[in-house]
Design goal:
Blueprint lengths: L8 E7 L6 H9 L7 E7 L5 H6 L4 E6 L4 H11 L4 E4 L5 E2 L3 H9 L5 E11 L5 H4 L9 E3 L6 E3 H7 L10 H11 L3 E14 L7 H5 L3 H17 L1
Parallel strand pairs: 1-2, 1-4, 2-3, 6-9
Antiparallel strand pairs: 4-8, 5-9, 6-7, 6-8
Helix pairs in contact: 7-9
């Protein structure tokens, strides 16, 4: 029987006041069919029970920073990572059990490659019906070029550069655009690797009602124009 290759992935989970869903997120990493070498919770200045939950897990690294946003938490995690590969998970989402195993198979032998997979949105079960009717939740899994569906070599993440900490939303969209401009290749698995929780106060609902992707799109357009000007 073939042995599972040694685990070499750090999973970075940025968390801000995440006590409600953090255990489910961590448990979905713990239950991976290919274990992660390290799980790192980067607490972005939480004032709830996030620290206690994170520190209750043996082998989970807990890191605290002053509140600075998702991009800063992701960057902090990347800086502290000492494995060959890295993956990210939002503190209110969960992974499919085979995520890391399937993505390591796809990444094996590849260089400068970002491996993604499909994402399935779900309505958080504690929500009342009158609220669920107001939340958009796609019924079928869909290809997702997002941080939560990514597995990549740490050296490739660092080569592209840090996530832009001036963006309150769209920090991964900006980073992915820079990665494509740098010539990194993407692989999209035909498998659901992540489940995105839709609820009343998460980053994909409340925050996006009040923030705009315009700065991210402008940065992308300006960068593309600059690149064309150098040709």
């Amino acid at each position: 029987m073939n042995k599972t290759p040694p685990a070499n992935t750090t999973v970075v989970i940025p968390a801000y006041n995440a006590e409600k869903y953090l255990r489910e997120a961590i448990n979905s990493v713990v239950r991976q069919t290919r274990p992660a070498a390290a799980i790192m919770i980067v607490d972005d200045g939480s004032t709830d029970g996030t620290p206690e939950i994170a520190q209750s897990y043996q082998g989970v690294t807990y890191v605290h920073q002053a509140n600075a946003g998702v991009a800063a938490a992701l960057n902090h995690g990347v800086r502290l990572t000492n494995t060959n590969t890295i993956a990210f998970l939002s503190a209110d989402d969960v992974w499919a059990p085979e995520k890391l195993e399937l993505q390591h198979i796809a990444l094996a032998g590849q260089s400068r490659t970002l491996v993604f997979g499909h994402m399935h949105h779900f309505l958080s079960p504690e929500l009342p019906p009158e609220l669920t009717r107001t939340l958009a939740c796609p019924p079928e899994p869909m290809p997702a070029f997002s941080a939560g569906t990514l597995l990549a070599a740490v050296e490739d993440i660092r080569a592209v550069g840090p996530f832009n900490e001036t963006f309150q939303v769209g920090e991964f969209m900006d980073w992915y655009g820079r990665a494509k401009d740098a010539g990194l290749v993407t692989t999209m698995l035909d498998a659901t690797v992540s489940m995105r929780r839709v609820h009343s106060s998460n980053h994909s609902t409340k925050t996006l009602r009040n923030q705009s992707y315009a700065p991210v799109l402008k940065a992308l357009i300006d960068r593309r124009r600059a690149l064309q000007g150098k040709l």
